[in-house]
Amino acid sequence: MDSLARQPDEAQAQRASPVTAAALPSQRDAFALPDDVTYLNCAYMAPQLRAVTAAGVAAAARKERPWLLRPAEFFDDLEALRVLFAGLVGGDADGVAVIPAASYGLSTAAANLRPSAGDRIVVLAEQYPSNVYPWRDLARRTGATVTTVARPADGDWTAAVLALIDERTAVVAVPHCHFMDGTRVDLAAAGTAARAAGAALVVDATQSLGALPLDVAEVQPDFLVAAGYKWLLGPYSLGLSWTAPQHRQGTPLEHHWAGRRGSEDFANLTAYTDAFRPGARRFDVGEASNFVLVPMALAALRTLAQWSVERVAATIRPLTALVADGAAALGLVSAPASRRAGHIVGLQLPPGTVEPAVERLREAQVHVSRRGQTLRVSPHVYNTRDDVERLVAALGSVL
User: Which residues pair with 108 in a beta bridge?
Assistant: First the structure.
């Protein structure tokens, strides 16, 4: 399809990209995707890996025999999960907490930061609600102000964020990329500016982690959270967070038995203590040892570790470039490649056409999302050039 030839600015962005790992061969067989389904909607919810389904089935069966569950099994899989997540973000396992949702981790961050009256909490315009509501609540409680970064006309969120960070800033709460269209924030630059202003950096990596490399040693976030059911390929209702060392003595959202030191000793649980288990484990949700979801999340993160995030990114990035090129041939606008994270592309359709386009595409078994006035396309390693061509052909018949 000639319309998918890469445009010069796209090609330049590809060469300039830090992603140099080799692309993966198609991993479609690792997922239970029917042959007639073109799923370009991982930013909505990842299809389940066969390995994750198998882990869930086996885990559900294990719960049939609770007499075989030993106290250590409440903790061993959690520790393995911490190690895998720490490896994913370049952090340490002691900084990892197991949470039910990104909102839980963000609320934990908000509960442990102390802005003063008149301080600013910086968020993006049209940012995902879970990374807005906790800050509105914190502002109400403290007299701080939520300051919204307006959507930049050139797509450069980084410059727009940096322009609003000053001595009045107490918290910078941003994603790695905007959930609507994948336009990117340079987290390392945001972190540097936040630290210079004495502000905390809180990162919601839900729409990037697993598809976009991230290193907490470089970014230095105070708190980083990610839901597990999108780019981490895990089950719904289980996420993970990483907390910087200076915040690990903070206050958890809930006080449960498993967060306390010595909780591994079931015979002495009533020897109550005010001491917490080490690191960020105090921030775990109650019943974090979920005997179905945790094994599923382990299977997902083990698969990601085997593939490597760098290779996942190298596989997806050319596909989003092809989407942008094909859409441009139809007269549709997307952000420049230099502004996109590489795994999500947002297409601007004429007013009044987005929802009908999504419905028509769904009827053709081509699955994408509408976010605002944007048609959001988010492929993964189960997609190929053929899927992109099918999308572009379907769009051409709709518009």
Answer: none
Residue 303 CB contacts under 8 Å (≥ 6 apart), including other chains: 30, 49, 51, 52, 233
- 215-256: per-residue pLDDT in tens? 999 999 999 999 999 999 999 999 999 999 999 999 999 999
Q: For helices 354-363 and 385-398, what crossing angle results, to 10°?
A: 120
The DSSP H or E segment spanning 66 is none
Of 204, 380, 253, 359, nearest to 304 by C-alpha is 380
Q: Is the pTM for the entire model greater than 0.85?
A: yes
pLDDT of 64-119, one tens digit each?
Answer: 999 999 999 999 999 999 999 999 999 999 999 999 999 999 999 999 999 999 99
The span from the CA of 348 to the CA of 207, in Å, is: 20
344 contact partners, CB below 8 Å, separation of at least 6: 43, 177, 181, 182, 207, 320, 376, 377, 378
pLDDT at 10 exceeding the cut of 60: no
**Residue 9 in this model has a pLDDT that exceeds 60:** no
Can you tell me the distance from the alpha carbon of 43 to that of 40, in angstroms, rounded to the nearest whole number? 8
Q: Using CA atoms, how far apart are residues 233 and 61, in angstroms rounded to an integer?
A: 22
Spatial distance between the Cα atoms of 350 and 170, rounded to a whole number of angstroms: 39
- Cα 344 from chain centre: 12
8 Å CB contact between 123 and 148: yes
DSSP state of 339: G
